[in-house]
Amino acid sequence: MLTLAPFTATHVAAVKRVRLAEEQVKFVGTAESFLEDQSETTHLHIIKMADEIIGYFKLDIEYWSTHPFCPKNGLGLRAFVIDCQRQGQGLGTLAATTLVPYAQARYPEFESIYLTVNCRNPAAITCYLKGGFEDTNEKYLDGPAGPQHIMKASLFRKHSSAI
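Given the sequence above, the corresponding structure tokens read:
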């Protein structure tokens, strides 16, 4: 079973064991850079399969301050990683799908999640689309690795109406 959880200091060694293919590092950085980026506004999270940490991601509560396309009530998803040995098994899509209810529960004051994904990373684009994100049909041009698609997912809970 795949689960998401907040990162704690007990996860450091396991996160450092998560590996990326060399060509992916330019898009998301290394495990070390992930660990160094924790702050009051950048919250680290892990992706687990059973008891094994297979990935990680960041949720940025002030993404809007550096990404003008994101409203103040939008979370930013950054450095979404699945270990290279576990890629191609649908786990990234499953984690992306699991992310929306996870964020709804932990960040109820936010209405959406925004991310940018490099135009040269079709596997990640497909993963996010299958995971419930939509392409806004806009590009973010200030990324360090070239033009990026801007994608978003709604965090609004759908309510059933009684008839």
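The two ends are 36 Å apart (CA to CA). Try to locate this feature in the token string yourself.
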